[in-house]
Design a protein that fits this description.
This protein is mainly β. It contains five helices and 28 strands. It has a domain of about 130 residues. The N and C termini lie far apart (about 55 Å).
């Protein structure tokens, strides 16, 4: 019997997976859920190029939904093969696949590795110790392939591409390398596309070395953008462990001490790195919600009933007026609002039981652009214990 335990385990897992799939499919089939956005005020065009993702939940059953102002797609209502091989590619790359299927074949489908403008599509990744670069000329449909060795890659345990830009006939690949002894380096490599050679190799920034602790670089950029970008924003942090002698050895004592905390902005085209002088309370809030739009950095901080957004003008090197947004009151059984800063706007979605609201405001001025309600239609008759929870928003370029 022991010889067959692996086969039996695989069969049990397979039965559970297939059973769960058909239970979910049965749940999905009982109600074709449709989500509608009902305007309270503002311009409905604000919803035109936005995709919302979320879960519609009844008890312990759920449907994963993709929603726009025009349609609702039930991601669970698919064949078993489609469910197991669901394409989670972001919309901007799905569009590239549809338009340039041959060029996109075999590539890592990560937006950081791509750049697109009206003339070309560029792709850069790292395979082993070399850059794997391909450039598609949109007018001729011709592809140029470039393979170059990555300088000093032996210094890193892992290296990843974080951004790709094209300017003046040059391709710029920005990478993050994880040093073997700990810490990160941000490097920039400029490649002449016509001559197919590396013309500049520079270290943009590095984290400090910490003997008893660690350091890291937190990158803040629009993950879903493959268009031209002028700036790259990141925060450098370093922590040192507190150690005290005990019974002949050093042991940890309390929480790690923050020894470095800097906000940096990098001008990609000019190759200029500047430190953003910010109060401690602002540096501490720089995170996933932060964003750059044109030449302004937006750094939000959230409390129980309102959201403050600090603005920093990169070109003027000064802080602007702080914006404050009221947030809906949360009862004990309600989650925190979903917030997204994107394309110079702030999206606030408050999901409660049977009463979801959406607010879209201009980040620069705070002016309301759209206020509305998110309504779930075609639920089962008498169904009251359902909830829609939006967990992601994407812009369509």
């Amino acid at each position: 019997m022991k010889r067959y335990w692996k086969i039996i385990s695989v069969c049990i897992v397979t039965v559970i997976v297939i059973g769960t799939f058909y239970i979910q499919s049965s749940f999905a089939a009982k109600g074709n859920v449709e989500v509608r956005f009902e305007k309270v005020s503002g311009n409905e065009e604000e919803l035109k190029n936005v995709i919302f993702y979320g879960d519609y939940t009844v008890g312990n059953m759920f449907q994963s939904l993709q929603m726009t102002s025009k349609e609702t797609i039930n991601l669970n209502k698919q064949s078993l093969f489609q469910e197991l091989t669901r394409n989670n590619t972001v919309p901007v790359l799905k569009k590239l696949i549809e338009q340039h299927r041959t060029f996109m074949r075999g590539k890592e489908l990560t937006p950081n590795n791509f750049y697109e403008d009206e003339n070309l599509v560029a792709y850069a990744s790292i395979k082993a110790k070399d850059f794997d670069i391909e450039i598609l000329n949109k007018s001729t449909e011709e592809t140029t392939s470039i393979q170059l060795a990555v300088p000093k890659i032996q210094n890193y345990s892992w290296t990843e591409v974080v951004d790709v830009q094209v300017s003046g006939g040059n391709l710029k690949v920005i990478t993050r390398g994880f040093r073997k002894e700990g810490g990160n380096d941000i490097n920039g490599y400029t490649i002449n596309m016509g001559e197919q050679k590396l013309v500049k190799d520079e270290m943009i920034h590095t984290t400090p070395s910490v003997e008893n602790g660690w350091s890291d670089i937190i990158l803040i950029n629009d993950y879903n953008s493959i268009r031209s970008e002028k700036y790259l924003l990141f925060k450098t942090e370093a922590y040192e462990d507190k150690q005290v002698p005990a019974e002949g050895e050093m042991v940890l004592d309390g929480a790690p001490k923050l020894v470095a905390n800097e906000v940096m902005v990098y001008d990609i085209e000019k190759n200029q790195l500047k430190k953003v002088v910010a109060p401690d309370e602002i540096r501490g809030t720089l995170g996933d919600l932060s964003a750059i739009f044109h030449s302004t950095i937006f750094i939000p901080s959230q409390s129980a009933d309102h959201l403050e957004v600090n603005q920093y003008d990169i070109e003027k090197e000064k802080w602007g007026k702080k914006l404050s947004f009221d947030l809906p009151y949360n009862k004990e059984d309600e989650g925190a609002p979903y917030i997204k800063l994107m394309n110079g706007k702030i999206y606030i979605i408050h999901s409660t039981k049977n009463d979801d609201t959406i607010s879209i405001r201009d980040l620069k001025t705070g002016v309301s652009l759209y206020e509305g309600k998110i309504k779930v239609k075609n639920t089962r008759e008498g169904q009251q214990d359902f909830r829609l929870h939006v967990n992601e928003i994407e812009g369509v370029q």
